TrEMBL record:
This is IstB domain-containing protein ATP-binding protein. Keywords: ATP-binding, Nucleotide-binding. The keyword ATP-binding applies. GO terms for molecular function: ATP binding.
């Protein structure tokens, strides 16, 4: 079982792509029994000036 905030997952996938090794995390997640995505805002994201989930309509 793996837990991710959606923001963290997107950032990790983007870093893989920029690092020239896309697909490694996706391949590991294929073998997880369950992947949980949390849509709640990560507090450090809000503090850094990011939009809140409810504000991004």
């Amino acid at each position: 079982m793996r837990f991710f905030s959606t923001i963290e997952l997107v950032n990790a996938l983007e870093q893989e792509k920029l690092g020239g090794k896309p697909g490694q995390l996706a391949t590991r997640l294929m073998y997880a029994d369950l992947v949980v995505l949390d849509l709640c805002v990560v507090p450090r994201y809000v503090e850094s000036g990011g939009a809140r989930h409810s504000d991004s309509r």
